[in-house]
Amino acid sequence: MTSPWFLLTVAGLLEIGWALGLKYTQGFTRPLPSVLTILAMIASFYFLAQALKAIPVGTGYAVWTGIGTVGTAILGIVLFSESTALPRLFCIGLIVMGIAGLKLTSAA
């Protein structure tokens, strides 16, 4: 049996993929990036749903969005030269601490 936390991590990584994919779809006017983005969305929701069978919904949803937020923000810095201002990086760090805290305090 696959760990619900592993499934949740996969769902979060796929969320990063579809969030970044939205940039490349150019408003869903580019067919291949659009199809890949939609497939990543479906897969992300599927893995999230599987993880939520064992993880409380509040914890699971917060971790899923946290992984997506942090990953998308970091890749935005790397791929699109987005801001690396210290307050922004500090806030990303706070999200990481929140994800870790939810995992450490979860019963699942």
From TrEMBL:
The keyword Cell division does not apply. Keywords: Cell membrane, Membrane, Transmembrane, Transmembrane helix, Transport. It is a multi-pass membrane protein. Its main location: membrane. The chain crosses the membrane at residues 31-49, 61-80, 86-105. It comes from the Bacteria. Pfam families: Multi_Drug_Res (PF00893). InterPro entries: EmrE-like, Small_drug/metabolite_transptr, Small_multidrug_res. It is found in: Cell membrane. Belongs to the drug/metabolite transporter (DMT) superfamily. Small multidrug resistance (SMR) (TC 2.A.7.1) family. Gdx/SugE subfamily. This is Guanidinium exporter. It comes from Microbulbifer halophilus. The lineage of its organism: Bacteria, Pseudomonadati, Pseudomonadota, Gammaproteobacteria, Cellvibrionales.
